[in-house]
Amino acid sequence: MPDDRLMRIQSAEFKAMSERVLRATELTSRLNVLPFENEAGKAELFELILGRPLPKRVTIYPPFYTDHGLNLDIAERVFINQNCTFLDYAGIRLGERVMIAPKVTFITMGHPVDPVERRGWLSGGPIDVAENVWIGAGATILPGVTIGRDAVIAAGAIVANDVPPASLVTGTKAAVRRQW
C-alpha cells in the first residue's frame, strides 16, 4: 500500500499539478527567449512564475526551468547560473548566499521503485538547501535531500542522501542496491 507521500496520477491533485506545469512551462519559455531591455520585464515574469517577487539581491541567469515555480523559496543573495532546472512541486528552499553553477537539477518528485505502483503514483519530498552552500555544475539533487550549511556539492555529483554541514560531497557512481 502506498504511503501518504505519494500522489495518485488519476487524481484532482495531479490534474491541478499538470495544469500548473503547462503554465510554468509557458512562462519560463517566455523568460528564456526574450531579450530584456530592462530588469523590470524579467522581474515581472519571475513574479508570475514564482507567485511572488524575487528577493532584491537574487541573480538568476536564463535559461531557467521550473515545472511548478510556486513551491520554490529563494532567500536573499542567492546566485543561480544558466540552464538550471527546478522540479519543485514538493518544495525547494534555498537559504541565503547559496551559489548554484550551470546545469544543476533539483528533482522533488519521481515514481516509486515498486513496478506495481510506478505508473499510477508519484512520490517525492522537499529539498532544503541551507545557507552558504555551493552546488557545482551539472549536479543533481534528488527528492527529500537536506544540504547543511557551508557544504559544497562537487560538479556532476548525484545527491540522494542528506549532506552534513561544512562537508564536500562528490560522486556519480551508480550501483545495484536491490533486485526484485
How does the SSE layout of this entry go?
Elements: E1 7-8, H1 12-33, H2 39-50, E2 59-60, E3 64-66, E4 72-74, E5 79-80, E6 84-87, E7 92-94, E8 99-100, E9 105-107, E10 109-110, H3 115-118, E11 121-124, E12 127-129, E13 134-135, E14 140-141, E15 146-147, E16 152-153, E17 158-159, E18 168-169
Parallel strand pairs: 2-5, 3-6, 4-7, 5-8, 6-9, 7-12, 8-13, 9-14, 12-15, 13-16, 14-17, 16-18
Antiparallel strand pairs: 1-11, 10-11
Quick synopsis:
By secondary structure, the chain is of the alpha/beta class. The chain has helices at 12-33, 39-50, 115-118; strands spanning 7-8, 59-60, 64-66, 72-74, 79-80, 84-87, 92-94, 99-100, 105-107, 109-110, 121-124, 127-129, 134-135, 140-141, 146-147, 152-153, 158-159, 168-169.
What would you note in describing this structure?
The model has no long low-confidence stretch (mean pLDDT 90). The chain has helices spanning 12-33, 39-50, 115-118, and strands spanning 7-8, 59-60, 64-66, 72-74, 79-80, 84-87, 92-94, 99-100, 105-107, 109-110, 121-124, 127-129, 134-135, 140-141, 146-147, 152-153, 158-159, 168-169. It has one domain (7-169): Hexapeptide repeat proteins (UDP N-Acetylglucosamine Acyltransferase, domain 1, 3 Solenoid), CATH 2.160.10. With 180 residues, the protein is of the alpha/beta class. Helix 1 (12-33) packs antiparallel against helix 2 (39-50). The chain has three helices and 18 strands. The strands form four sheets. It has a six-stranded parallel β-sheet, with no helix packed on it. Strands 3-6-9-14-17 form a five-stranded parallel β-sheet. It has a four-stranded parallel β-sheet with strand order 4-7-12-15, with no helix packed on it. This is Acetyltransferase-like isoleucine patch superfamily enzyme. Pfam families: Hexapep. It comes from Saccharothrix ecbatanensis. One of its GO terms (cellular component) is cytosol. InterPro entries: Hexapep (IPR001451), Hexapep_transf_CS (IPR018357), Hexapeptide_acetyltransf (IPR051159), Trimer_LpxA-like_sf (IPR011004).
